[in-house]
Specification:
Elements: E1 2-6, E2 10-17, E3 28-36, H1 38-48, E4 53-59, H2 61-73, E5 79-83, E6 89-96, E7 101-104, H3 113-127, E8 132-136, H4 147-158, E9 161-165, H5 168-174, E10 181-182, H6 186-193, H7 200-212, E11 217-221, E12 227-230, E13 236-240, H8 252-265, H9 270-285, H10 295-302, E14 306-309
Parallel strand pairs: 1-4, 1-8, 2-6, 4-5, 8-9, 9-10, 10-11
Antiparallel strand pairs: 2-3, 6-7, 11-12, 12-13, 13-14
Helix pairs in contact: 1-8, 3-4, 4-5, 6-7, 8-9, 9-10
Length: 311
């Protein structure tokens, strides 16, 4: 079972428009609301691939009730909600028919010490039945930056593998805890390393440097350029997707992380897991709005992802 944790979930409001142009009007074509958050998205992908998953998320206020309704009404995958006092956030994605997108995120609710303790206890209890723990997304106000690091330590003691998909100080703090995999995108890696990444050599150096900071494996997501994988056996691989017409790339990184963990959990090697991750991200980017490709859609792209060694 792959356990996902979303400390800062959201109601995602996805707005499709005819075009996004600076200082000009756009016309709304459709609006859709759904349950959002990196961990929830990961569970959705894993479930659609036929994997076993449980999603843990906080839940509070009217938006929290909406989140719970979205996730339970369809009978998709099991969820466990930790109740909090304040409203969870609402995020907005605006995408046009040319693949341009803007994502606007709220910070999220402030969590009390008691709420945070309940969340941590729930996660520790559930990870005893898991092979993987995916720690996904930002931390809302009131959550210490070492929260993920503490859970990675706990998972390690139980023999549970960890995938960390976050940004900023929580990513930096978690490096010493030695997560099994970290999956930063280019911008997250630039913030972590405090340098611009412009060339292929920069990407390779960044992946190796992040692994040197403590992560056992690093998957550096590069959007339409695919991903680089720096693995614990010292190998460095590049996965390059086929060219596609991307309709909305937002959420593709969530699909990549989920498919990577799913593939490793099905006994694939790191190179093959990298191929599946890039395939899932690419297949999802072809869909309108924030949507996620299923296994068959991903399999069609998987056949066309080129994987080659860089060392």
């Amino acid at each position: 079972m792959i356990l996902t944790l979303t400390v800062n979930p959201a109601i995602d409001r996805n707005v499709s428009v005819d075009r996004l142009v600076f200082e000009d009007r756009a016309y709304i074509l459709s609006t859709r609301e759904s349950a959002g958050g990196r961990g929830i998205n990961a569970s959705y992908v894993i479930h659609s691939f036929g994997g076993s998953t449980l999603a843990i998320a906080i839940c509070g206020g009217k938006t929290g009730k909406m989140l719970e309704d979205f996730l339970t009404a369809g009978g998709q995958f099991p969820c466990e909600f930790v109740r909090v006092r304040h409203e969870i956030r609402t995020n907005m994605t605006i995408a046009d028919r040319n693949g341009l997108a803007i994502k606007l995120n709220e910070l999220g609710p402030t969590l009390s010490e008691a709420e945070l303790e309940r969340l941590e206890k729930t996660t520790r209890r559930r990870m005893k039945d898991a092979q993987w723990l995916m720690l996904c997304g930002s931390l809302p106000p009131g959550v210490p930056a070492d929260f993920y690091a503490r859970l990675i330590h706990s998972a390690g003691k139980l023999g549970v593998k960890t995938l960390l998909d976050t940004d900023g100080e929580p990513l930096d703090e978690a490096m010493d805890a030695k997560p099994t995999v970290v999956t930063p995108n280019q911008q997250e890696a630039e913030r972590l390393l405090n340098r611009a990444l412009l060339t292929r050599n920069h990407f390779a150096e960044a992946a190796e440097r992040i692994r040197g900071m403590g992560a056992q494996n690093v998957v550096l997501s590069l959007g339409a350029r695919g991903a680089l994988g720096a693995f614990e056996d010292g190998s460095l691989w590049e996965a390059v997707p086929p060219r596609i017409d991307a309709l909305c790339p937002i959420g593709a990184g969530d699909a990549l992380a989920a498919a990577f963990a799913w593939s490793l959990n099905n006994n694939a090697d790191s190179k093959e897991a990298l191929r599946w991750g890039v395939a899932a991200g690419t297949a999802s980017a072809r869909l309108p709005g924030v949507s996620f490709a299923g296994l068959e859609q991903t399999r069609e792209i998987h056949e066309r992802v080129a994987v080659r060694p860089l060392t």
